Amino acid sequence: SLDSSLTEVVEDSLPVEAEPLNGNGYGNYADSEEYYENGENGNGVKPKIVYGDYGIPIAYVGEDVEGEKSYSTYEDVVIKPKEGFHYRAKEIPDEWELTFDVKNVKFEAPKVKNAASKEGEIIIQAYSSYFKSRLRKMRRIFRENPEIGTVIDIAKLSYVRDDEVTIIGLVNDKRETAKGYMFEVEDATGRVKVFLGRDKENASQAYNAIMPDSVVAFRGQPGRGIFFANRVFLPDVPKFRREKPPLEEKVYAILLSDIHVGSNKFCEKAFEKFLEWLNGEVNSRAEEELVSRIKYLIIGGDVVDGVGIYPGQYNELAIPDIFDQYEALANLLRNVPEHITMFIGPGNHDAARTALPQPGFYEEYAKPIYKLKNAVILSNPAVINLHGREFLIAHGRGIEDVVDFIPGRTHHKPAEAMVDLLKLRHLAPTFGNKVPIAPDPEDTLVIESVPDLFQAGHVHVMEYRIYNGVFVINSGTWQAQTEFQKMVNIIPTPARVPIIDVETARLRAVVSFDQFCEGV
Amino acid sequence: MGEELYSPEMKAYFESLQREIDRAYEIARKARSQGKDPSLDVEVPQATDMAGRVESLVGPPGVAERIRELVKEYGKELAALKVVDEIIEGKFGDLGSKEKYAEQAVRTALAILTEGIVSAPLEGIADVKIKRNTWADNSEYLALYYAGPIRSSGGTAQALSVLVGDYVRKKLGLDRFKPSEEHIERMVEEIDLYHRAVTRLQYHPEADEVRLAMRNIPIEITGEETDKVEVSHRNVPGVETNHLRGGAILVLAEGVLQKAKKLVKYIDKMGVEGWDWIKEFVEAKEKGKSSEEPKVDESKAEDSGAREEVAEKVEKGFYYELYERFRANIAPNKKYTKEIIGGRPLFAEPSENGGFRLRYGRSRVSGFATWSVNPATMLILDEFIAIGTQMKTERPGKGCIVTPATTVEGPIVKLKDGSVVRVDDYETALRVKNEIEEILYVGDALVNFGDFVENNQTLLPANYVEEWWVQELVKAIEELYEVELKPFSDNPREAVEEAAEYLEVDPDFLESLLRDPLRVKPSVELAIHLSKVLDIPFHPYYTLYWNTLKPEEVEELQKALLNAQIEWDEFRKLKFAKRVILENDPQIKRYLELLGLPHRLERTEDRRKVIVIDYPWSSALLTPLGDLEWEFKAKPFFTVIDIINESNPIKLRDRGISWIGARMGRPEKAKERKMKPPVQVLFPIGLAGGQSRDIKKAAEEGKTAKVEIAFFKCPKCGHTGPEHLCPVCGTRKELLWHCPKCNVDYPESEAKEFGFRCPRCDVELKPYAEREIKPSELLRRAMDNVKVYGIDRLKGVKGMTSGYKMAEPLEKGLLRVKNDVYVFKDGTIRFDATDAPITHFKPKEIGVSVEKLRELGYTHDFEGKPLERDDQIVELKVQDIILSYEAGKYLLKVARFVDDLLEKFYGLPRFYNAEKMEDLIGHLVIGLAPHTSAGIIGRIIGFSDVLVGYAHPYYHAAKRRNCDGDEDAVMLLLDALLNFSKYYLPEKRGGKMDAPLVVTTRLDPREVDSEVHNMDVVRYYPLEFYEVTYDMKSPKEIKFIERVEDRLGKPEMYEGIKFTHDTDDIGLGPKMSLYKQLGDMVEKVERQLALAERIRAVDEHHVAETILNSHLIPDLRGNLRSFTRQEFRCVKCNTKYRRPPLIGRCPKCGGKIVLTVSKGAVEKYLPTAKMLVTRYKVKDYTRQRICLTEKDIKTLFETVLPEKQRTLLGFSADVCEKMIKERTGSSNGKNGYLDGFNGKNGKAKKAKVGSEAKKEKKPKTEKSKDLKKEVKKEKAKARRKRISLDEFFGG
After folding, report:
1. Interface pTM, i.e. ipTM
2. Could you say which of B1156, B1179, B1196 has the minimum Cβ distance to residue A353?
3. Pick the CATH number of B1104-1203 from 2.40.128.50, 3.40.190.10, 2.20.28.10, 1.10.10.10
């Protein structure tokens, strides 16, 4: 496996040998350092493979940090609202609420046998409860689907005869056979092999859409050691949504993400132009109307480029200092008119916990943005209620795994991947692939209630679509194509500003500033 | 052919080896024929040469004879193709299908090209197939499937295998491979991905190069997956995997493309058609290079043009000009400093003055990628270097191991009491070791000329040394007095006396000086005398590092000396200083330190401290300064030595021009090989033996084990079981073949009739089945057989990975337990050691008596004198080896095991009867390197108390190793012959590597790795050599130093090899690197940095930063990421799960589930990293990475393992908290303290540095403020850094 270089900590397993072992073991033979000298850096230390953006593997090798840099933190960017510009939004009362934020979740510490339990045991317990809580939450979601029928535990399947029953569980494994599809499904009571004939309704679509560890329901009959499914259900979102009462006044929200301040590819000029535009430097009456009614600005993570995020980053940073990156960001964002409320959440480049979920930014590093008067700091993920409409905001790392597991998905069409996540009602269903998941005892990445809008970023491509009444949008970036992206052939769409009509939770307009972005 | 190749002595030597070999084989045959082992024959065939090895390794049978004939007629490369012709023409039998012909041809040809040693022809080529261009015209083409082990054959052979493949293709009349765009882009992606995600390729081709190669290579280069890394170009037709194909990638990138130039030569030589594209490719590349180069040249020319203009006006000093050319031609190579591992110190920055001083030469134990240093250097470098420790080096090669040579200079150190000492011997080193404040000069590195040739490294200007001086002496004597003398040898007494008379010196002294100029040194007054009368440069021993100082500084020094108290003396009317006493001015003292001049501090009566320079160093200092009779005046474009040589009657040569940087690589190793977990018998026990696979435990507990194992049935009495011989009636049993479907067993004879298919189910029969065994019964019987009872444990294996799953007889395990030895996967017992070269030894060094040596055929010393004393130097015979004591002790146990085995298991007489280590002398071993499948016979002739395996460079080369840190194994010949079996080898890819599939009995230097052909074999390098090094020529232009290559094919290739530098003892020096003795990473890194702080040629801040960036941070970040993506594992059955099973236990066996990456693994290096960013001046960026990583780790566990809140009151010493406070603290107003720090990143400080250090041209990176000790350090460093080449030229 890729992680063979990891130090495997062998708890209460092999007895300790009196002498250290040579690296020539049976199992380890082929991997042992002496024999694959070239496979490492020649020091007996194997490079670690990690997955960079887009899930592209990079060997985590040493980097050069040479040379001093001089840079600006945009102290001089001071933009005042255009005199006489009329902001209709100022007169509309605020109406927002944080419906869900990870910071507000009270995690129950995992139950362990005794207080003196080892850390390892506690962590295993935490991960176990994480998946159990996922199953619980998903069962709740399935319950709303009238077609599901009688749900029974896998362990009780042997008591069932002939009746059609439903099992709900995490998918461990799936594969295609000559006649259909085989799954291994697990719930809290046991695991069972499930066979779904090729001829069954939606079989192949469902097969393709199911990611490892996602929760699905199978209706069918148990056989000898195997469950014959007639139907498969994804948690999904209901086909139709009840319409929400109209708003008295049009109110707009701007969706941004992946600003990457500090990167030498950050489109600073374009961002400044955008800020000027927010301050009333508009080109037409139509734009004036838009700007006038903007009341919210949501930023979905990677607000700065961070430090030490990927090997060799130093060379691609204009600001190689995390404090100054946030300082620079705050210096830019302080130019957002005060009546606009900003919601800012973290991403993988931010000074924030690396594993999902991300409760927020590290306050001590990102202090300048915490100090912005009109900013609200979000967790990743978070749900904001704007005038009665639910906006699900996530950074979107789960897209990486979708691209890995679901045929036909690419980084260039992130909205498709986001729909897949929505169907599975989870922001990062698969464990152990590319998305790092923290050992929290509760799964806060389940999309428990159906949002009106689902925003993500991460892949730097703006794209949107509507799925069963949910507006799904990836909000693009403010970073021009990096060397790395060039190499892996990722073409970002920087400096595009999607404007959302809060009432309908649909796109009202996209304003582009990419002509001010170098390299586009 | 044979006779003219060997002298009678060599012939006798090889014959005696062969007699011993035959004896061992005979015993082994007797034992094997009893039928207690998988095969009735010895399974290690002998081969005398390459052809024999090829036939044994890959076949076809009978090919060896043809290879010999063809090689004789056509040479190796062409012979490979001729063999292809003959195989395909069916001369070696009908192989069935075209594919089989192709496969055989490719394998045999590649084996010929790789000398039949490496396992690449077996393991590196997974398959050869004939496929169709279905996406094009559906024509047939040839596909070579490469696997990971192709790496072992090296780039050139990899490239050649493609050429051979194409030849085979044409021979079979197949069409070309016509790749689609998909195929091409897939390979482009794979090569790039491999480089990024798996291993940095030595040569990382551009996308267009890959495209060109893919379009033009007429066969398909493909292979099996080697790494679980997925590509994005999936499901390409004909490509079976969506993962990386490491073998194919290597062959294309590091084979065909990297070795394109070499390949062209072979294409011409072998006359393969259709490869014009590669010629064009090479030409285009060369052109590209040359079109680039002129640009560089132009700019250089401009540069030097500008200088020359100046030069027309001003005169330049000789050394000034030399340094200038040096700097223009040979840039410091920083590559080896890009990575520094925690606990493995940097000894010298690239080309830094004070680092390793280049000394050209080869000691008895160096050359072939091995450096010798003075053992004192090893000690003074805190014993981080022991004998055999690997270093990564700046040049000539990338790495080396280190051996001792007492005749090269050791370090020059400054002690805590302020004195400076030259440490040239071990005793002094031991004495001062703990008193060292600064290592001013690390000492000499003896690097042989051959390594420069091998690496095509431009020759660096030679530093002035005794071996050069003595030749100038000899030359001057000849020119002046017409007396011919020879250095490094005995001279006719008359000649010596005549010269001595002219020179007015003691003839005995002159004689010994000539004989051993490295040890015998004239007194300083005699040195002055010789320089005066012969007009030769001052003796190097008394020459100081004058050019480390700037002329202005020497001017200052001279002024200070004018006020010094000097005692004079006379020798033949020559004045010389006997003692100098100077005021203790720190500046002046520093100059003396930098000169490398030994001196000390003394308190005068009025309690002032003064600098005292004693004889002879007083004279070494004052003689070049004309005893202060002329005034030293700095002048532009002249170095100190230039100025001295202008004014002083006695001239100087620079002793410190060329410096080489190095850091520690891997530690030395000499250790028995154990598997993980250790195994004593290749017998499967499953889970019945518990976690330690203990068969004894399973037997005691009366368990039965269900394991996959081969069973045998007695044709007479019907007994079945894992033994080969029937325990009831003693008949050789028959293997039972098993039908996995209907569970029926068929004895081999029946199975054969059915074509090894089940007659009922038509399923292929398997040689093993899952069967129940009763360990208690089997063990009891085995114990009775060999009468071994009362063992503590007997470690088996969980399951067999071999194709047949035949178990070893338990008796072998019992006897191994009794003798405390362990077994390797193939049934042999191995001892691993770092390879170290040795060409000459002294009997006393290896603990063997002169009498015994004579018995072994050592009758004369290396100068041809009869061997009488144990301190004479003897040339080693090529297949003789000197083992580490550890190896001796272990092999002694192995010998007892083999004897027990012979006596108790096979009922044969004991063979070794070894009581003590010395009893093993004269016995044979097999040397075998990883990645190879051919061993070589060696003979033990002695032992040394070091952790390396000393053997002739040829011997290592015969295993395809050089000595830059490689290690490999020895096993006792009889152990291998008795116990090795192919039936034990794992079936997976690479299973046949590192197994003695064939053994070479007679070493032929022409058939070993050609790297050793570059080793030089002379007694000394001629004067001419030292002179031309100043021209910085390519080593290939030097034709007058004899190398192994020049002797190939003559008897001299075996004998009469010489060395340039002797050493007192090949075992003198630390035995074990400090690295291996230190505990955790914090301790390792602390010691490493303590050393860095001490070495003048190392910048400890740079070291700290590099350790963080190249070792600690990648580890921390990597583990952090892995933690959150980790697998989970069942403690009991070891099943792995992507996530913990919901039921909380292992669904398979109910075992407990544990993490595979623990919290501890994630945090492991955090304390070390924090220590480094606290104590050393590293970039803010690096410090922030550490602090963020710490925070990332903390927050990862915050919901599960809530930490007690630490009080944030008051001052915190934590570097991260301090940093945060500084950056975000209360004073965050516009003009607060932080604004100067914030975002300006040292600009303010730079200005400060600039104004503070007036003489500094290059602003030094600022130091961390927070450390008092750094301030102290800074002063010292500011001064010591002054003399870089940059500054030297006032750049």
Report:
1. 0.91
2. B1196
3. 2.20.28.10
